[in-house]
Write a structure and sequence with these properties.
The chain has 304 residues and is α/β, with parallel strands linked by helices. It has helices at residues 8-16, 54-66, 76-82, 100-107, 124-137, 141-162, 187-193, 212-218, 232-238, 240-243, 252-255, 264-267, 275-286; strands at 3-5, 23-27, 41-45, 72-74, 86-90, 115-119, 170-177, 180-182, 197-198, 208-209, 222-225, 259-262, 300-302.
Amino acid sequence: MRVCSLLPGATEIAFALGLGDDVVGVTHECDYPAEARQKPIVVRSLIDSHRMTSREIDQWVSERLRSKKSLYVIDEKQLREAAPDVILTQGLCDVCAIDYSEVVSVSEALAKKPTIVSLTPNCLNDILDDVGRVGEATGQRQKAEQVVRDFQERIAAVRRHTVQLPTRPRVACLEWFDPIYAAGHWVPEMVELAGGQDVLGRKGEPSAKIDWNKVVELAPDVIVLMPCGFDVSQTLRGAPALRQLEGWRELSAVKAGRVFAVNGHAFFSRPGPRLVDGLELLAHIIHPEVFPMQVSPDHVQTIA
């Protein structure tokens, strides 16, 4: 079985299913587990997010989408050499990965037509279903069932501790800073499971641009900064812009020192196995008295 994964979350699923040796192509963003970095790259992004501000990235992406230009490029030569039996891709977000129709078009030119598995999750159950779909397509059904059971047990363990909690802090999860975006899809569900009340996002719905005054009005007790595709260090570099916003210093979360920069890149943006790690991290952030744990500064840091 030869597998090309055009989505970091799908790459993580493939490795979780024991398919590491079968993965013959990935994207430039596929950096977990470490072995994924050694695989041939068949898709690259056209944007250098390390050299641009949040506003510049948003403007560049918006212009590309308005003009119907892709944000990614497929290395067709590398894809032909990979000769995949299965291509894992997505149809959820034009910003997160290469467009599904482009994948279909390029695959039609391959000598051997691969099976294309498109993942479009909006909630945690969808992601668990996707693990099963990848397992079915790659001959790893039993392994997929075991992986799903393990994830379900960890999710249930968090739920058991939070379902009867007397307080549910108001939580704001920001997926982008300039402009402000509220995190959507599975993140509001994760907040709820972790014992919080998401005041910005809607479960199962896309991330959405939101007026900063709305954030101030909703007065969150906890703010979690999780820019899409950013690790903690990148998030910390962008965070000072938030301090300049009117009403920032008056927010309850800011006064209480409950503003957190997390590794959104690893634990919240990607619809893959590490979302369960993200859930456990959120539970610790929202209810540290119930979920004490040692956390790495590469995973979360408090914003002063």
